[in-house]
Amino acid sequence: xANIGIIGAGSWGTALAWLLSNNGSRVTVWSVIEEEIQMLKxxxxxxDKLPGVILPADMEFTTDLASAVDGKDxxxxxxxxxxxxxxxxxxxxxxxxxxxxxxxxxxxxxxTLMTLSEIIEEExxxxxxxxxxxPSHAEEVGKGIPTTIVVGAKNRQTAEFxxxxxxxxxxxxxxxxxxxxxxxxxxxxxxxALAAGMADGLGYGDNTKAALITRGIAEIARLGISMGGRxxxxxxxxxxxxxxxxxxxxxxxxxxAGILIGKGASMxxxxxxxxxxxxxxxxxxxxxxxxxxxxxxxPIVEQVNRILFEGMPASDAVKELMLRDKKVENIDxxxxxxxxxxxxx
Length: 345
Prior knowledge:
alpha/beta; eight-stranded mixed β-sheet
């Protein structure tokens, strides 16, 4: 039995706490919000963000970060991406050398263009960092609905250790060494999901959604491979798999926010209505900045930025996308593999 600390008591942290506890681990959940911890202690339920998922009686809840971190075999960092750096900095004094931290949030830091695992490695260099990503809504994981996901780590032993902790009859876990590819796919699929929601809000149909998903993954793959990711990652669970579920499901806060924007709401109004952190808003500027840095064409990401931050009507952005210069659909995949890295394990 492993001793695990969940850092963050939102919907995803709570769902993973439920899963890991059911797998036989001893789980402690931390939140900085006193009222949230009190609610979990009293009702064993995250009523605001994951209603209906009852947590085991032996699960512990705390606002004391030191006790949530100290002596744990694994830490699950489950705070929203804008708070990854500040939370990691607060954790750092309590993390022992070699202690495993698996990040489950999705995003890119706008000010530095760093991935979340890079942030954790910078703030907590003594830890061993990994990531968990894939098509996995917390609302379904918390109900035991079959889900498949990927653990990414630089060290194979670490990946297999984490795979064993998370694996269950309803939660199948694959492993990968492509941490960069996993994180770029995870962050930028939220930006494309905003676009898919906008198309829904405008009243467009399945043809438009399919176009956004397929051209969206092409954009994400171009950037990810330029940054050192592997092409197969973007056509797997953490790439196209996660993109499909985020663009198609009403569980997706990014799609829901996009629908509101497509109907005429501002970015601020949409985020207030969704009542949760809309990760795609925070990743949009970073994604566009990375496309400029690496010289990669990302027209969907560019138009989402114009809608969010320049006030462009979503309907005008669609016209811009449709009337761009004529293109061929695919380039020679061998060109992409030239930039890809060897599999280290």
